[in-house]
Recover the amino acids of this structure.
């Protein structure tokens, strides 16, 4: 699950923090980097557990309504949502159950939010269409939760505030992690039952190696990379750069020089996107021009053996 998008985000955050921290110990900083990435994986599991928590809440409320219906001789309420096949499979998932049992804090500690979310779901058009629909199969149940997640969980300001209160690491993680939760929902297969595999924390050791090498190159070669910035910025006011811009370009140069298989256009585009989020409104276009100039300068001076497309 931890992909290069998440790794780049974390390295921007941790590199900036490294320079703000008076005690500059790269080994400690590297441990913090990997810990912060493990917290992103925790968030992935925690958001899946939210689906389970809402389903349990729906069953709790169903039992109350059932008891009332029996006392008053009313029709039995529908169990369709409370016993949604996909949600029940997720609830029985061995990997997720192990995660939940290992946590000090669970959604039981935020029962008020879970109840409120269930009520929002119950009032939604998605829920009403599902409950009124005649389709009664696993695919329909799974699709319901994909739609609920996209409309009521993915863009949920109250949830984002709650998550940020629980972990500072989750402040910038949710947007990326949401895509992995949706991917997981789509991948679930009824025949796999409780043994359905969730996404692994890392797809391979290669991603861990990428993170370690990129972070260390960024820190250990900082003076060299900043010299390249100065050399290539003859037509740019390098001295007026925001400090975050310097950090982002420093990491981009590290990636250019350390990973020959990553195309220059990919590196430049990725860090321009990060600049839009982490730095000033004008930073993205400035960094785009600077990184292009730096890449061309490094190629011309023989320090970078890559190709960059000529501007039209």
């Amino acid at each position: 699950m931890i992909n290069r998008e998440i790794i780049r985000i974390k390295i921007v955050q941790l590199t900036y923090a490294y320079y703000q921290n008076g005690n500059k110990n790269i080994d400690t900083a590297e441990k913090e980097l990997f810990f912060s990435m493990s917290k992103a994986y925790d968030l992935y599991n925690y958001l899946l557990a939210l689906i389970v928590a809402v389903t349990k809440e729906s069953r709790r409320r169903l039992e109350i309504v059932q008891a009332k219906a029996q006392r008053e001789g009313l029709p039995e309420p529908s169990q369709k949502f409370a016993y949604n096949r996909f949600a029940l499979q997720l609830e029985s998932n061995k990997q997720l159950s192990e995660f939940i049992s290992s946590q000090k804090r669970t959604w039981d500690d935020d029962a008020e939010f879970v109840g409120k979310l269930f009520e929002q779901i119950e009032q939604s058009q998605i829920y009403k269409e599902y409950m009124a629909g005649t389709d009664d199969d696993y695919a329909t149940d799974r699709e319901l939760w994909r739609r609920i997640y996209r409309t009521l969980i993915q863009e949920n300001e109250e949830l984002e505030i709650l998550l940020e209160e629980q972990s500072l690491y989750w402040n910038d993680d949710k947007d990326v992690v949401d895509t992995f939760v949706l991917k997981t929902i789509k991948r679930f297969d009824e025949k796999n039952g409780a043994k359905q595999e969730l996404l692994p924390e890392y797809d391979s050791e290669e991603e861990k190696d990428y993170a370690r090498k990129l972070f260390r190159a960024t820190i250990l070669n900082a003076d060299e990379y900043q010299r390249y910035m100065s050399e290539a910025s003859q037509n740019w006011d390098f001295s007026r750069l925001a400090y975050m811009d310097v950090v982002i370009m420093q990491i981009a140069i590290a990636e250019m020089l350390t990973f020959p298989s990553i195309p220059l256009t990919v590196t430049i585009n990725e860090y321009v996107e990060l600049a839009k989020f982490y730095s000033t409104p004008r930073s993205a276009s400035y960094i785009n021009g600077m990184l292009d100039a730096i890449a061309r300068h490094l190629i011309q001076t023989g320090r970078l053996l890559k190709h960059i497309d000529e501007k039209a």
Q: What stands out?
A: Residues 7 and 211 are 6 Å apart (CA to CA). The chain has a mean pLDDT of 93.
